[in-house]
Design brief:
alpha+beta; Double Stranded RNA Binding Domain; two-stranded antiparallel sheet; 34% helix
Length: 144
């Protein structure tokens, strides 16, 4: 039984405190604030997830490869990379991808607007200079 109903949207709750937390979303009230940067949230769980950006904490670990992630959703996406299945194929060149978002990024490499594309991460550029700067990858080894 869920006798506590939100007057704003009609959603029902079994616990009055859950209704109160829910109603903060409608009011825009932000009760939780990051001391490092001032970002605020109306839910403590969102602030805890945000704090990982400041602390570098990565509590979600891939059992197969050992990589660690700050968000569970990033771990889930990563775990798909271990799958051999690549259901998203480029109509132009046939290259296949595990994730639709990677195919979408790759497809920009075929655009005449951005003829310079990075083979490592599929980002495309309209001119040679930004492409060359990108290849430096923030001081790391340039792509070959």
């Amino acid at each position: 039984e869920k006798p506590y109903t939100c007057k704003e949207c009609g959603k029902s709750f079994s616990d009055p405190s859950a209704l109160k937390v829910h109603q903060r979303r409608h009011s825009g009230e932000k009760l939780y604030c990051s001391e490092e940067c001032g970002k605020s949230s109306n839910q403590n769980k969102d602030l805890r997830a945000h704090q990982r950006h400041h602390t570098g904490e990565k509590p979600y670990q891939c059992e197969e490869g050992g990589e660690k992630f700050s968000k569970h959703s990033n771990l889930t996406v990563h775990q798909q990379s271990h799958s051999k299945e690549k259901p998203y194929a480029c109509d132009e060149c046939g290259k296949c991808f595990t994730h639709l978002c990677n195919l979408t990024i790759h497809q920009h490499s075929h655009s005449r607007k951005n003829p310079y594309h990075c083979e490592e991460c599929w980002i495309s550029f309209p001119a040679e200079l930004p492409f060359t700067e990108h290849q430096q990858h923030t001081g790391e080894k340039p792509h070959e």
